[in-house]
Write a structure and sequence with these properties.
homodimer, alpha+beta
């Protein structure tokens, strides 16, 4: 079985370059192979930049996740952050750290998944770094462009805002739970809401926006924390949180709490945003965004109950 | 002893935000704390992006490297890539992966070193990611801006070009060797040649440029590989490779080969570049770049001798 150590650092870089091909699109001035990549925005645009890592044993397990699915998620997590800013993708960089003993077939699978997502969502690989390490990690930096002053951010929620979410929640958590129960592979290929984010950035009356990566409650807490004008709390109606078709039945069969999964499960990569009362209704917003939108609650003035449970969701270094 | 696990993911992010302070400069539209950072270039500029990782046990050792020195190097390695492109820094993102058991004091030291370099070289921290992992790694993405069409790249060397280098080489390798022999800490705080790179990007008659991160021979090989118009080789005069004051004596005392260190030692972060015969001489270039410049050889047409030894220098996954 061939390993990373067999092809070596420069062999690996050449392998990545071959698989990625020459980046298309006028945004890439200088791609893989130089000290820095060079990207071009259009006049009047700012550059959005985000970084995220998937670590072996923490974010993925070779025995549970298909290599291509790991790669797909690594890229989608970052593209979703661009979507939450309203940016269009310009390009991405890969920092791969892995042991020399990593089977090349695993690496190739991860790369295939990353490049499939890169092609699907129009974000070419433009550079990166490979380094030997004791465990495998994939650190992806995604760069995008957004019209000046039109970006979405976490810090725009106000008391009175309606809380809305695209698509459905809980599907990723259900897929993970099912794989855990059955010992099978996780079958879930999330998509970043890039077109919806870009459309949202062009609308008036939008407050804050974040992508649901940690889980609805956890990410909503980020919006409340970042909101201005005094402490904010959320009135959420769990019954209105949209879930995938067949979700309740599947949860019942697996003995899972559907509400916990929908409110606490991460990695759905939907957009969670607030809108002023005067902004269009959920159906009209869904039409503009090209994706179903549900209204699930309201932002209110006041502190969250200190005695209440902490928001459900993913947290690093937590016991 | 407090650890990362004691402060948790969001406590750690808050700690980083506090230490970094609010980024200054008009280039940062949106800094730490949102889904993506937003950076602004000036009209007519492209965005340069580079990523590099320092991995525990591979690039640094807690018992040999002072935490602040590790952090400094993590940032300088990336800023040096921006320098080699001729870019001015816009901002950087940190992807930290570390075990929850990492002593907070070590993390604080690393962070202090990174932020010291960030301030010294005018590149504010604008975002990042923290993740639990089995080993510590610091993945830094640096973003810069360069006037369109004026960027330096690896791919500009031509037969007949003179080979030049800024500053001195071998100092970093000597410091590492000394620390290995004495069991002491590595004392070496390299600086990225940002001003020199930016000045070089404005000059005419410059061929290719790269920073000396892997070692002179290894990085020169990258320039030869990236050159156009048929295979290229380098005629290098080892006696003209500039070394730090007292370098030969120090090597002699430690029983080290000074030529091997100067030609093979990495992490000096000097700029290695080529210039057309008609470009100014080394002294005049040094004056324009604000740093000593030495001419050390010539680019020639023809293949490198296949029987010769491979270039000395750092390579990942090598035995």
């Amino acid at each position: 079985m061939r390993t990373l150590g067999d092809v070596g650092e420069f062999g690996l870089i050449a392998r990545i370059e071959r698989a990625a091909g020459r980046p298309r699109g006028r945004g890439v001035v200088l791609g893989i192979g130089d000290d820095a990549a060079l990207l071009r925005t259009r006049p009047g645009e700012d550059v959005a930049a985000t970084v995220d890592a998937l670590v072996e044993g923490v974010h993925f397990r070779w025995d549970r996740d298909a290599p291509a699915a790991i790669g797909w998620r690594a890229l989608v997590a970052n593209l979703s952050d661009l979507a939450a800013t309203g940016a269009r993708p310009l390009g991405w960089l890969l920092a791969l750290a892995a042991p020399g003993s990593l089977p090349l077939a695993r690496f190739d699978g991860v790369l295939r998944g990353m490049l499939a997502a890169a092609r699907a969502f129009g974000c070419p690989l433009v550079g990166g770094n490979v380094a030997a390490a004791g465990e495998t990690s994939l650190t992806v930096t995604a760069l995008g462009a957004v019209a000046r002053g039109r970006q979405l951010s976490r810090g725009g929620a106000r008391a009175g805002d309606r809380i809305l979410v695209t698509g459905t929640l809980g599907g990723a958590a259900l897929a993970r739970a099912r794989a855990d129960r059955t010992g099978g592979r996780v079958r879930h290929a999330p998509a970043p809401r890039l077109a919806a984010g870009a459309a949202l950035a062009r609308l008036r009356g939008i407050g804050a926006c974040i992508d649901v990566s940690d889980g609805l409650e956890a990410d909503l807490a980020h919006l409340l924390d970042a909101g201005a004008g005094g402490p904010l709390r959320a009135e959420l109606d769990p019954a209105r949180v949209p879930v995938p078709r067949g979700f309740h039945g599947a949860c019942r069969r697996l003995g899972l709490d559907p509400t916990a999964l929908a409110l606490g499960g991460g990695e759905d990569y939907e957009l969670l945003f607030t809108a002023r009362p005067t902004a269009p209704g959920a159906a009209a917003l869904g039409h503009r965004l090209g994706v179903p939108v549900a209204e699930i609650g309201r932002i209110r003035r006041g502190s969250r109950t200190p005695a209440g449970p902490p928001p459900r969701g993913w947290r690093h270094f937590a016991d």
